Recover the amino acids of this structure.
């Protein structure tokens, strides 16, 4: 099933079930009003939502209406946890190579992951509001999962079973603020503003054969200012699968229902597939020509992030944002 | 007023108002059931809670009962944000001096802060469950604030006005996992397990004159295995006040209601005041004698963290935890 959260003026919005083709939606209010509520009580509530989903897909839901992604908040407008991995080691290799640094051997066995702010997510069509273009505004096209409860010490394979929903993320980054925060070693606070998520979150079964052992074997498309800049395979080159990322997160603590875990920038070794963040394009330019040529985003720039299934249909709907520079 | 969250089998517990002397409590259920709900709608709900608080303090609340901290969850059992500063630069100086590193000049103007996990907090009397003593289990006695909404770009002085509640925290740290995570630069994921909080959170007015311009001028006491090891002044030497910490957090993004912001380990230049974390004691030993002598916590160890007001009464109740080593 596919779930979304409609704006209703409240902080958590209103849960809706969305049809597989993203054409129709139906309020879930007879079952649950908020997505977190469903995650808190998944075994009881999700079968009821599945039933509504099937009725909707068969065109038999009596109060269905046209689904409008512009009315969406993030599926979880705020969450108790957002932990973003860097599971595509090719991204790390590229960025490091460009600055003449090597990749420590441990990075191939121990995932990079940072704890992000989760109190104020952006909806799929919300503006990326930044104080200044001097911060080096970049998009990062990613996949993410929303988990149920995963106890401390959960093993990677078992952690796959804790995945309830998948969605897309735009992990907006302020590149020029990153070096100073990296040097402090305490992770990202100012260099990672609000993350945006796709209109819908979907259960793994919606991906069919493309969902295999914690990886999504589909292409993630990034369109910057109307031009496709990336069509990257999100599956084969994901060094750490989502179960491994969740296991990393809950090595010394529990991860509770509603935790969102991100893949990091989707990245492929074949440069002809393009890029899922500008930093990578700049890294390639630096490796090839000694310096970056492509500038980061400016006010008015647009970014569109979408993933299509084997049938050519959009799985999650599109993240479609515009950069708005405040002041 | 003083607020606490009672265990009731649910993930968010049940909001109670607690009397100033921590003797009595009263369910707030006629007004609100969960603390986050109050923070989401502070201006409407907090005056009603204040009224109940006054009735309770005057001994006139009809359904009051004896307050039992052992029945408490963290005031916010889970939160949308936990950002922990390192506002006592003396702590940073000590730890760095012990390992022969200097403190960069920028640390005196730009606070250290990490984003922590906030999906699974511990109550004041919950066990600190760790997989292994080899991780170097340490307590960190801290103050923290819970905020209302603070918009991107809020200035330090204005950010003080966004503070709704204060409380104590035990930011449990796994010291032997920290160096590797620091080296990765992405912050703390595995080295910071669940944080515990004091039984009650209090509005700033409960601190009277001790609350001055974003700092709490009272002593924070740490008792390890029954022995007082620290009685540190939480006010004068706090390099960055809570308004500055909140402003740092929301430089590039909004901080939404219910964000918890921590002070970091309370630390004084006068070593005779003791310590609020074992790492600091070990740093002093290293500076004085070349090597640490004090071991980190073991299974069965206890830690008690409390702060008393000018009247000698406990302000927040005590964090009283025991280390339980799993397996």
């Amino acid at each position: 099933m596919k779930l979304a959260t409609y704006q209703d003026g409240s902080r958590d919005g209103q849960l809706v079930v969305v049809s597989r083709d993203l054409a129709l939606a139906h309020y879930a209010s007879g079952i649950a009003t908020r997505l977190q509520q469903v995650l808190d009580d998944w075994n009881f509530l999700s079968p009821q939502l599945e039933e509504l989903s099937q009725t909707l897909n068969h065109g038999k839901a009596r109060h269905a209406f046209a689904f409008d992604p512009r009315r969406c908040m993030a599926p979880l407008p705020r969450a108790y946890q957002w932990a973003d991995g860097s599971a595509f080691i090719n991204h790390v290799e590229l960025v490091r190579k460009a600055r003449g640094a090597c990749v420590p051997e441990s990075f191939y066995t121990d995932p990079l992951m940072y704890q992000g702010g989760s109190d104020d997510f952006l909806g799929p069509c919300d503006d990326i509001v930044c104080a200044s273009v001097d911060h080096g505004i970049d998009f990062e096209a990613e996949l993410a999962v929303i988990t149920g409860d995963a106890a401390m010490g959960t093993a990677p394979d078992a952690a796959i079973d804790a995945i309830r929903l998948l969605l897309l993320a735009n992990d907006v980054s302020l590149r020029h603020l990153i070096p100073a925060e990296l040097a402090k070693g305490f992770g990202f606070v100012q260099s990672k503003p609000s993350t945006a998520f796709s209109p819908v979150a979907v259960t793994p079964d919606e991906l069919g054969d493309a969902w295999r052992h914690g990886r999504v074997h589909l292409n993630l498309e990034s369109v910057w200012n109307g031009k496709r800049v990336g069509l990257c395979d999100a599956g084969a080159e994901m060094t750490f699968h989502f179960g491994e990322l969740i296991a990393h997160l809950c090595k010394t603590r529990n991860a509770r229902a509603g935790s969102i875990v991100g893949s990091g920038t989707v990245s492929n070794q074949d440069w002809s597939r393009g890029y899922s963040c500008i930093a990578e394009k700049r890294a390639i330019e630096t490796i090839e020509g000694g310096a970056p040529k492509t500038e980061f985003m400016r006010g008015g720039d647009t970014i569109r992030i979408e993933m299509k299934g084997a049938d050519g249909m959009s799985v999650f709907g599109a993240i479609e944002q515009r950069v708005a520079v405040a002041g």
